[in-house]
């Protein structure tokens, strides 16, 4: 199982009929088949928790993910990484890797949204199993659109390079004089 390091591309904090989601992107697109995005639908509260963690917001009292981070720290452990291991239908499965003070590594089952909320608070890396990317990732359509625009611009440039002044000469009958 190959693990791919991911970064958070964006958070959509939905409301009403719009679902909340977190979109992950491979840190190094060369390790995957091009530019991919991994959208994961999450709850509104979890989207807010991730967003607040990314903003390094400080609150008067700790929220749930802040509390868990503090408990892990007080017990002498650290959160070394989080991973998204598999996907079944639209459900993603993740874990949080803790390192205890004696060096033992412990993997704790977690929802991806909770794992990511902890990762942003502890600066822990986020990894996704390459099988999950193959199953659930989408192309980055912004990049696809940019590539298409560049291709069209090159085709137009190549066309302009083939033109000569004679292509623009028009005779008295309104037709091109080029034979």
From TrEMBL:
Gene3D superfamilies xrefs: Bifunctional nuclease domain
InterPro entries linked: BFN_sf, Bi_nuclease_dom
Pfam families: BFN_dom
GO molecular function, one term: nuclease activity
Domain of life: Bacteria
Domain BFN, residue spans: 3-140
Annotated PANTHER family: VON HIPPEL-LINDAU DISEASE TUMOR SUPPRESSOR, VON HIPPEL-LINDAU PROTEIN
Protein name: Bifunctional nuclease family protein
């Amino acid at each position: 199982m190959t693990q791919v390091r991911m970064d958070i591309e964006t958070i959509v904090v939905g409301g009403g009929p719009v679902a909340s989601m977190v979109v992950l992107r491979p840190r190094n697109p060369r390790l995957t088949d091009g530019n991919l995005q991994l959208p994961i639908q999450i709850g509104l509260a979890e989207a807010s928790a991730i967003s607040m963690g990314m903003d390094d917001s400080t609150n008067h009292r700790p929220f749930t993910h802040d509390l868990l981070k503090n408990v892990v720290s007080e017990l002498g452990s650290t959160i070394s990484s989080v991973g998204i291991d598999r996907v079944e239908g639209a459900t993603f499965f993740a874990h949080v890797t803790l390192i205890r003070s004696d060096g033992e590594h412990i993997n704790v089952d977690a929802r991806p949204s909770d794992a990511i909320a902890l990762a942003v608070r502890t600066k822990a890396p986020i990894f996704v199993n390459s099988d999950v990317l193959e199953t659930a990732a989408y192309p980055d359509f912004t990049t696809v659109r940019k590539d298409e625009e560049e291709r069209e611009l090159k085709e137009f440039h190549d066309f302009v390079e083939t033109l000569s002044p004679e292509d623009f000469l028009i005779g008295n009958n309104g037709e091109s004089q080029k034979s």
